[in-house]
Amino acid sequence: MKEGPVSRNISRIGHLDIPGGGQVVVQDGYAYIGHMKPPYGTTIIDVSDPVNPAIAAQIMLDGDASHTHKVRVVGDLMVTNVEQNNRHFLRKGAGLPALRKTLAQSLGRAPDNRDLAAEIGVEPDQIPLLDAARERGYDDGGFKIYDISDPRNPRQVAYQKTFGFGVHRFDVDENFAYISTEMEGYLGNILVIYDIADPATPRQVSRWHMPGQHIAAGETPTWAGYKNRLHHAMRVGDELWAAVWHAGFRIIDIADIRHPRTVASHNYHPPFPEPTHTIMPLANRIDGRRIAIAVDEEHDHAPGRLHGGLLVFDVSDHDNIQALSVFDVSEMDSPWSRAPGRFGAHQFCERLDGTLVYAAWFSGGLRIVDMADPFQPREVAHFIPEPIGGEKSPQSNDVDVDANGLIYLIDRNRGFDILEYSA
Question: What is the CATH number of the domain that holds 284?
Protein backbone atom coordinates (compact mmCIF):
# COMPACT_ATOMS: atom_id res chain seq x y z
CA MET A 1 0.00 0.00 0.00
CA LYS A 2 1.27 3.47 -0.89
CA GLU A 3 2.56 5.26 2.23
CA GLY A 4 2.89 8.83 0.97
CA PRO A 5 0.67 11.08 -1.14
CA VAL A 6 -0.02 10.41 -4.80
CA SER A 7 0.22 13.52 -6.94
CA ARG A 8 0.58 14.97 -10.40
CA ASN A 9 1.31 18.67 -11.00
CA ILE A 10 0.52 19.46 -7.35
CA SER A 11 2.93 19.78 -4.44
CA ARG A 12 2.22 19.89 -0.72
CA ILE A 13 3.72 22.96 0.91
CA GLY A 14 2.02 22.88 4.32
CA HIS A 15 0.16 20.43 6.58
CA LEU A 16 -1.58 20.27 9.95
CA ASP A 17 -2.83 17.18 11.73
CA ILE A 18 -6.25 18.38 12.93
CA PRO A 19 -9.63 16.67 13.49
CA GLY A 20 -11.75 16.02 10.41
CA GLY A 21 -13.40 18.95 8.66
CA GLY A 22 -16.67 19.51 6.82
CA GLN A 23 -15.87 22.83 5.14
CA VAL A 24 -12.91 25.17 4.63
CA VAL A 25 -12.93 28.80 3.52
CA VAL A 26 -9.95 31.14 3.28
CA GLN A 27 -9.91 34.92 3.69
CA ASP A 28 -7.10 37.40 4.29
CA GLY A 29 -4.48 34.90 5.45
CA TYR A 30 -6.72 32.77 7.62
CA ALA A 31 -8.39 29.42 6.93
CA TYR A 32 -11.68 28.74 8.70
CA ILE A 33 -12.55 25.07 9.20
CA GLY A 34 -15.81 23.60 10.47
CA HIS A 35 -15.28 20.20 12.09
CA MET A 36 -17.30 17.05 11.53
CA LYS A 37 -17.54 15.91 15.14
CA PRO A 38 -17.87 17.49 18.58
CA PRO A 39 -16.31 18.66 20.79
CA TYR A 40 -14.48 20.41 17.94
CA GLY A 41 -16.49 23.29 16.52
CA THR A 42 -14.54 25.73 14.33
CA THR A 43 -10.79 26.16 13.97
CA ILE A 44 -9.19 29.34 12.61
CA ILE A 45 -5.72 28.74 11.14
CA ASP A 46 -3.15 31.40 10.33
CA VAL A 47 -1.94 30.51 6.82
CA SER A 48 -0.01 33.73 6.14
CA ASP A 49 3.07 31.48 6.10
CA PRO A 50 1.66 28.53 4.13
CA VAL A 51 4.69 26.38 4.89
CA ASN A 52 4.00 26.69 8.61
CA PRO A 53 0.24 26.96 9.21
CA ALA A 54 -0.63 27.55 12.85
CA ILE A 55 -3.85 27.44 14.84
CA ALA A 56 -4.93 30.96 15.73
CA ALA A 57 -8.19 30.18 17.55
CA GLN A 58 -10.54 27.28 18.28
CA ILE A 59 -14.20 27.24 19.17
CA MET A 60 -15.12 24.13 21.14
CA LEU A 61 -18.62 22.74 21.62
CA ASP A 62 -20.39 21.79 24.82
CA GLY A 63 -21.56 18.18 24.73
CA ASP A 64 -22.10 15.99 21.68
CA ALA A 65 -25.67 16.87 20.66
CA SER A 66 -24.63 19.17 17.79
CA HIS A 67 -21.89 19.67 15.26
CA THR A 68 -20.92 22.87 13.44
CA HIS A 69 -19.25 21.38 10.40
CA LYS A 70 -19.99 24.21 7.95
CA VAL A 71 -18.54 27.71 8.00
CA ARG A 72 -18.47 30.80 5.80
CA VAL A 73 -16.85 34.20 6.19
CA VAL A 74 -17.69 37.57 4.69
CA GLY A 75 -15.83 40.66 5.80
CA ASP A 76 -15.70 40.73 9.59
CA LEU A 77 -18.39 38.06 10.00
CA MET A 78 -18.13 34.29 10.33
CA VAL A 79 -21.27 32.15 10.14
CA THR A 80 -21.45 28.52 11.24
CA ASN A 81 -24.26 26.02 11.13
CA VAL A 82 -25.64 24.20 14.17
CA GLU A 83 -26.99 20.77 13.25
CA GLN A 84 -27.87 17.65 15.18
CA ASN A 85 -24.91 15.30 15.40
CA ASN A 86 -25.64 11.82 13.97
CA ARG A 87 -28.99 13.19 12.82
CA HIS A 88 -30.04 10.52 10.33
CA PHE A 89 -29.22 7.69 12.72
CA LEU A 90 -30.94 9.31 15.72
CA ARG A 91 -34.13 10.04 13.80
CA LYS A 92 -34.61 6.31 13.34
CA GLY A 93 -35.85 6.39 16.94
CA ALA A 94 -38.82 8.63 16.11
CA GLY A 95 -40.96 5.74 14.92
CA LEU A 96 -40.10 3.26 17.69
CA PRO A 97 -43.25 3.80 19.82
CA ALA A 98 -45.52 3.11 16.84
CA LEU A 99 -43.34 0.21 15.71
CA ARG A 100 -43.59 -1.40 19.14
CA LYS A 101 -47.38 -1.38 18.92
CA THR A 102 -47.40 -2.76 15.39
CA LEU A 103 -44.99 -5.58 16.19
CA ALA A 104 -46.81 -6.46 19.42
CA GLN A 105 -49.96 -7.07 17.38
CA SER A 106 -48.21 -9.16 14.73
CA LEU A 107 -45.97 -11.11 17.11
CA GLY A 108 -48.50 -11.62 19.89
CA ARG A 109 -45.95 -10.40 22.42
CA ALA A 110 -43.92 -7.34 23.29
CA PRO A 111 -41.08 -6.99 20.76
CA ASP A 112 -37.53 -7.10 22.06
CA ASN A 113 -34.63 -5.01 20.86
CA ARG A 114 -33.66 -7.61 18.27
CA ASP A 115 -37.12 -7.43 16.70
CA LEU A 116 -37.02 -3.65 16.58
CA ALA A 117 -33.46 -3.48 15.28
CA ALA A 118 -34.25 -5.85 12.41
CA GLU A 119 -37.08 -3.58 11.28
CA ILE A 120 -35.14 -0.31 11.19
CA GLY A 121 -31.69 -1.57 10.22
CA VAL A 122 -29.66 -0.97 13.39
CA GLU A 123 -27.95 -3.13 15.99
CA PRO A 124 -30.01 -4.33 19.00
CA ASP A 125 -27.77 -2.50 21.49
CA GLN A 126 -28.50 0.77 19.64
CA ILE A 127 -32.21 0.73 20.44
CA PRO A 128 -31.74 2.22 23.96
CA LEU A 129 -29.62 5.00 22.42
CA LEU A 130 -32.39 5.83 19.98
CA ASP A 131 -35.03 5.79 22.70
CA ALA A 132 -32.94 8.09 24.89
CA ALA A 133 -32.35 10.56 22.03
CA ARG A 134 -36.06 10.68 21.19
CA GLU A 135 -37.01 11.31 24.81
CA ARG A 136 -34.32 13.94 25.16
CA GLY A 137 -35.36 15.76 22.00
CA TYR A 138 -33.32 18.31 20.07
CA ASP A 139 -33.98 22.02 19.76
CA ASP A 140 -30.50 23.48 19.28
CA GLY A 141 -30.47 23.55 15.47
CA GLY A 142 -29.81 26.85 13.71
CA PHE A 143 -26.83 29.06 12.90
CA LYS A 144 -24.39 31.29 14.76
CA ILE A 145 -22.78 34.56 13.71
CA TYR A 146 -19.39 35.68 15.00
CA ASP A 147 -17.47 38.92 14.85
CA ILE A 148 -14.02 38.05 13.45
CA SER A 149 -12.60 41.56 13.14
CA ASP A 150 -9.87 39.95 15.22
CA PRO A 151 -9.66 36.39 13.83
CA ARG A 152 -7.70 35.27 16.87
CA ASN A 153 -10.58 36.21 19.14
CA PRO A 154 -13.90 35.32 17.48
CA ARG A 155 -16.87 36.73 19.36
CA GLN A 156 -20.38 35.29 19.03
CA VAL A 157 -22.96 38.00 18.29
CA ALA A 158 -26.04 35.95 17.35
CA TYR A 159 -27.51 32.45 17.62
CA GLN A 160 -30.56 32.03 15.39
CA LYS A 161 -32.46 28.82 16.03
CA THR A 162 -34.47 27.16 13.27
CA PHE A 163 -36.13 23.73 13.63
CA GLY A 164 -35.66 19.97 13.50
CA PHE A 165 -32.20 18.78 12.52
CA GLY A 166 -31.18 22.42 12.15
CA VAL A 167 -28.97 23.93 9.46
CA HIS A 168 -26.82 22.11 6.93
CA ARG A 169 -24.76 23.89 4.25
CA PHE A 170 -25.57 27.53 3.32
CA ASP A 171 -24.33 30.65 1.57
CA VAL A 172 -23.84 34.21 2.87
CA ASP A 173 -23.04 37.67 1.57
CA GLU A 174 -22.78 41.09 3.20
CA ASN A 175 -26.54 41.42 3.63
CA PHE A 176 -28.16 37.99 3.57
CA ALA A 177 -27.73 34.38 4.70
CA TYR A 178 -29.21 31.69 2.44
CA ILE A 179 -29.90 28.93 4.91
CA SER A 180 -30.74 25.28 4.23
CA THR A 181 -32.69 24.02 7.23
CA GLU A 182 -35.64 22.05 8.40
CA MET A 183 -38.61 24.22 9.39
CA GLU A 184 -41.80 23.30 11.17
CA GLY A 185 -44.52 22.13 8.79
CA TYR A 186 -42.13 21.14 5.98
CA LEU A 187 -40.68 17.79 4.94
CA GLY A 188 -36.91 18.01 4.53
CA ASN A 189 -34.66 21.04 4.30
CA ILE A 190 -35.96 24.17 2.63
CA LEU A 191 -34.42 27.58 1.88
CA VAL A 192 -34.85 30.35 4.45
CA ILE A 193 -33.31 33.73 3.64
CA TYR A 194 -32.28 35.92 6.57
CA ASP A 195 -31.34 39.59 6.54
CA ILE A 196 -28.03 39.85 8.45
CA ALA A 197 -27.28 43.51 7.77
CA ASP A 198 -27.54 43.83 11.54
CA PRO A 199 -25.68 40.62 12.44
CA ALA A 200 -26.84 40.70 16.06
CA THR A 201 -30.49 40.35 15.01
CA PRO A 202 -30.98 38.08 11.97
CA ARG A 203 -34.40 38.68 10.43
CA GLN A 204 -36.25 36.19 8.23
CA VAL A 205 -37.01 37.66 4.81
CA SER A 206 -38.47 34.81 2.76
CA ARG A 207 -38.69 31.07 2.18
CA TRP A 208 -38.53 28.77 -0.81
CA HIS A 209 -39.40 25.10 -1.13
CA MET A 210 -40.24 22.53 -3.75
CA PRO A 211 -43.91 21.67 -4.29
CA GLY A 212 -44.77 18.79 -1.99
CA GLN A 213 -42.57 19.85 0.92
CA HIS A 214 -45.05 22.10 2.73
CA ILE A 215 -47.10 19.34 4.29
CA ALA A 216 -48.68 21.65 6.88
CA ALA A 217 -50.29 23.54 3.99
CA GLY A 218 -51.72 20.34 2.53
CA GLU A 219 -48.98 19.60 0.01
CA THR A 220 -48.19 15.95 -0.64
CA PRO A 221 -44.68 14.79 -1.62
CA THR A 222 -44.31 12.53 -4.64
CA TRP A 223 -41.21 10.94 -3.10
CA ALA A 224 -40.43 8.88 -0.01
CA GLY A 225 -38.83 10.30 3.14
CA TYR A 226 -36.08 12.92 2.72
CA LYS A 227 -35.10 11.84 -0.78
CA ASN A 228 -35.85 15.29 -2.24
CA ARG A 229 -34.73 18.27 -0.20
CA LEU A 230 -32.51 21.33 -0.42
CA HIS A 231 -28.87 20.59 0.16
CA HIS A 232 -27.86 24.22 -0.27
CA ALA A 233 -28.23 27.15 -2.64
CA MET A 234 -25.43 29.41 -3.89
CA ARG A 235 -26.04 33.03 -4.88
CA VAL A 236 -24.84 34.13 -8.34
CA GLY A 237 -26.02 37.64 -9.18
CA ASP A 238 -29.81 37.68 -8.80
CA GLU A 239 -30.02 33.90 -8.94
CA LEU A 240 -29.73 31.10 -6.41
CA TRP A 241 -28.44 27.79 -7.72
CA ALA A 242 -30.07 25.13 -5.57
CA ALA A 243 -28.97 21.50 -5.33
CA VAL A 244 -32.03 19.52 -4.29
CA TRP A 245 -30.58 16.06 -3.72
CA HIS A 246 -32.36 13.30 -5.67
CA ALA A 247 -34.49 15.94 -7.41
CA GLY A 248 -31.51 17.41 -9.29
CA PHE A 249 -31.28 21.20 -9.27
CA ARG A 250 -33.31 24.38 -9.46
CA ILE A 251 -32.49 27.94 -10.48
CA ILE A 252 -34.25 30.52 -8.30
CA ASP A 253 -34.78 34.17 -9.25
CA ILE A 254 -34.27 36.47 -6.24
CA ALA A 255 -34.37 39.85 -7.97
CA ASP A 256 -37.21 40.36 -5.49
CA ILE A 257 -35.62 38.70 -2.49
CA ARG A 258 -38.91 38.68 -0.61
CA HIS A 259 -40.46 36.48 -3.30
CA PRO A 260 -38.02 33.80 -4.55
CA ARG A 261 -39.25 32.31 -7.82
CA THR A 262 -38.21 29.08 -9.52
CA VAL A 263 -37.20 29.78 -13.13
CA ALA A 264 -35.58 26.47 -14.09
CA SER A 265 -35.69 22.86 -13.01
CA HIS A 266 -33.67 19.86 -14.08
CA ASN A 267 -33.59 16.37 -12.61
CA TYR A 268 -31.15 13.75 -13.91
CA HIS A 269 -31.94 11.15 -11.20
CA PRO A 270 -32.37 8.50 -12.53
CA PRO A 271 -30.26 7.32 -14.24
CA PHE A 272 -27.53 8.87 -12.09
CA PRO A 273 -27.84 7.25 -8.67
CA GLU A 274 -26.03 9.68 -6.35
CA PRO A 275 -27.68 12.92 -5.16
CA THR A 276 -26.88 16.43 -6.37
CA HIS A 277 -24.65 18.10 -3.79
CA THR A 278 -23.75 21.43 -5.46
CA ILE A 279 -24.63 23.21 -8.72
CA MET A 280 -23.08 26.45 -10.00
CA PRO A 281 -22.44 28.14 -13.35
CA LEU A 282 -19.01 29.09 -14.63
CA ALA A 283 -18.45 32.83 -14.44
CA ASN A 284 -17.90 33.18 -18.20
CA ARG A 285 -19.63 31.67 -21.19
CA ILE A 286 -17.82 29.19 -23.42
CA ASP A 287 -18.49 29.54 -27.16
CA GLY A 288 -21.66 31.43 -26.32
CA ARG A 289 -22.95 28.73 -23.99
CA ARG A 290 -23.70 29.26 -20.32
CA ILE A 291 -22.15 26.26 -18.61
CA ALA A 292 -23.03 24.90 -15.16
CA ILE A 293 -21.15 22.29 -13.14
CA ALA A 294 -22.86 19.88 -10.76
CA VAL A 295 -21.22 17.48 -8.33
CA ASP A 296 -23.00 14.39 -7.03
CA GLU A 297 -22.02 13.15 -3.57
CA GLU A 298 -20.91 9.56 -3.31
CA HIS A 299 -22.49 7.49 -0.54
CA ASP A 300 -22.45 3.69 -0.33
CA HIS A 301 -21.12 2.52 -3.64
CA ALA A 302 -22.64 -0.52 -5.34
CA PRO A 303 -20.27 -2.45 -7.63
CA GLY A 304 -20.89 -1.76 -11.31
CA ARG A 305 -22.71 1.49 -10.65
CA LEU A 306 -21.45 4.98 -11.49
CA HIS A 307 -19.60 6.75 -8.73
CA GLY A 308 -20.54 10.27 -7.76
CA GLY A 309 -18.79 12.64 -10.17
CA LEU A 310 -18.93 15.97 -12.01
CA LEU A 311 -21.65 16.67 -14.56
CA VAL A 312 -21.57 19.46 -17.13
CA PHE A 313 -24.74 21.19 -18.36
CA ASP A 314 -25.61 23.79 -20.96
CA VAL A 315 -28.03 26.06 -19.09
CA SER A 316 -28.29 28.80 -21.72
CA ASP A 317 -31.98 28.05 -22.20
CA HIS A 318 -33.79 27.43 -18.92
CA ASP A 319 -36.50 25.55 -20.78
CA ASN A 320 -34.06 23.25 -22.52
CA ILE A 321 -31.22 22.38 -20.14
CA GLN A 322 -28.89 19.89 -21.79
CA ALA A 323 -26.32 17.51 -20.32
CA LEU A 324 -23.00 17.81 -22.17
CA SER A 325 -20.59 15.49 -20.39
CA VAL A 326 -19.59 13.65 -17.22
CA PHE A 327 -16.22 13.52 -15.51
CA ASP A 328 -15.50 10.42 -13.43
CA VAL A 329 -12.45 9.02 -11.66
CA SER A 330 -11.56 5.36 -12.05
CA GLU A 331 -10.96 3.24 -8.97
CA MET A 332 -7.62 2.41 -10.60
CA ASP A 333 -6.57 6.03 -10.01
CA SER A 334 -6.34 5.75 -6.22
CA PRO A 335 -4.51 3.14 -4.12
CA TRP A 336 -7.18 3.62 -1.44
CA SER A 337 -10.28 3.33 -3.67
CA ARG A 338 -11.30 -0.01 -2.14
CA ALA A 339 -10.15 0.62 1.40
CA PRO A 340 -12.86 1.33 3.98
CA GLY A 341 -14.44 4.73 3.37
CA ARG A 342 -16.09 6.44 0.42
CA PHE A 343 -14.35 6.84 -2.93
CA GLY A 344 -16.32 9.12 -5.29
CA ALA A 345 -16.89 12.87 -5.48
CA HIS A 346 -18.15 15.15 -2.73
CA GLN A 347 -17.69 18.88 -3.40
CA PHE A 348 -15.88 21.45 -5.52
CA CYS A 349 -14.47 24.89 -4.73
CA GLU A 350 -17.42 27.26 -5.07
CA ARG A 351 -15.42 29.89 -6.94
CA LEU A 352 -15.80 29.14 -10.64
CA ASP A 353 -14.18 32.26 -12.09
CA GLY A 354 -12.16 30.34 -14.68
CA THR A 355 -12.45 26.96 -16.38
CA LEU A 356 -10.64 24.98 -13.69
CA VAL A 357 -12.80 23.03 -11.22
CA TYR A 358 -11.11 21.97 -7.96
CA ALA A 359 -13.00 18.92 -6.68
CA ALA A 360 -12.65 16.91 -3.45
CA TRP A 361 -13.07 13.22 -4.26
CA PHE A 362 -13.02 11.36 -0.91
CA SER A 363 -10.37 8.63 -1.30
CA GLY A 364 -9.75 9.95 -4.80
CA GLY A 365 -8.26 13.09 -3.24
CA LEU A 366 -8.20 16.44 -5.03
CA ARG A 367 -8.83 16.50 -8.78
CA ILE A 368 -8.34 19.63 -10.87
CA VAL A 369 -10.46 19.42 -14.00
CA ASP A 370 -10.34 21.84 -16.93
CA MET A 371 -13.78 22.57 -18.42
CA ALA A 372 -12.49 24.72 -21.32
CA ASP A 373 -14.11 22.15 -23.62
CA PRO A 374 -17.35 21.35 -21.77
CA PHE A 375 -17.89 18.30 -23.96
CA GLN A 376 -14.55 16.83 -22.91
CA PRO A 377 -13.53 17.69 -19.32
CA ARG A 378 -9.82 17.08 -18.86
CA GLU A 379 -7.99 16.39 -15.61
CA VAL A 380 -4.83 18.49 -15.37
CA ALA A 381 -3.66 17.61 -11.85
CA HIS A 382 -4.46 15.54 -8.80
CA PHE A 383 -3.31 15.10 -5.21
CA ILE A 384 -4.32 12.17 -3.01
CA PRO A 385 -3.11 12.56 0.58
CA GLU A 386 -2.01 9.54 2.54
CA PRO A 387 -4.33 8.51 5.42
CA ILE A 388 -3.08 9.64 8.81
CA GLY A 389 -3.92 8.91 12.43
CA GLY A 390 -4.71 5.26 11.84
CA GLU A 391 -7.40 5.93 9.23
CA LYS A 392 -7.80 3.34 6.47
CA SER A 393 -8.18 5.81 3.61
CA PRO A 394 -8.03 9.53 2.93
CA GLN A 395 -11.46 11.19 2.79
CA SER A 396 -10.93 14.53 1.04
CA ASN A 397 -14.04 16.50 1.92
CA ASP A 398 -13.80 20.14 0.87
CA VAL A 399 -11.47 22.53 -0.93
CA ASP A 400 -10.90 26.25 -1.29
CA VAL A 401 -8.47 28.31 -3.38
CA ASP A 402 -7.12 31.70 -2.33
CA ALA A 403 -6.37 34.79 -4.40
CA ASN A 404 -2.78 33.62 -4.88
CA GLY A 405 -3.83 30.25 -6.25
CA LEU A 406 -2.89 28.21 -3.18
CA ILE A 407 -5.21 25.28 -2.52
CA TYR A 408 -6.59 24.31 0.90
CA LEU A 409 -7.81 20.72 1.27
CA ILE A 410 -9.44 19.17 4.32
CA ASP A 411 -10.04 15.53 5.16
CA ARG A 412 -13.33 14.31 6.58
CA ASN A 413 -11.54 12.23 9.19
CA ARG A 414 -8.26 13.98 9.87
CA GLY A 415 -5.82 16.41 8.29
CA PHE A 416 -5.43 19.76 6.52
CA ASP A 417 -3.15 20.36 3.53
CA ILE A 418 -1.95 23.48 1.75
CA LEU A 419 -1.10 22.73 -1.87
CA GLU A 420 0.35 24.42 -4.94
CA TYR A 421 -0.66 23.65 -8.52
CA SER A 422 2.02 23.82 -11.22
CA ALA A 423 0.57 23.53 -14.70
Answer: 2.130.10.10
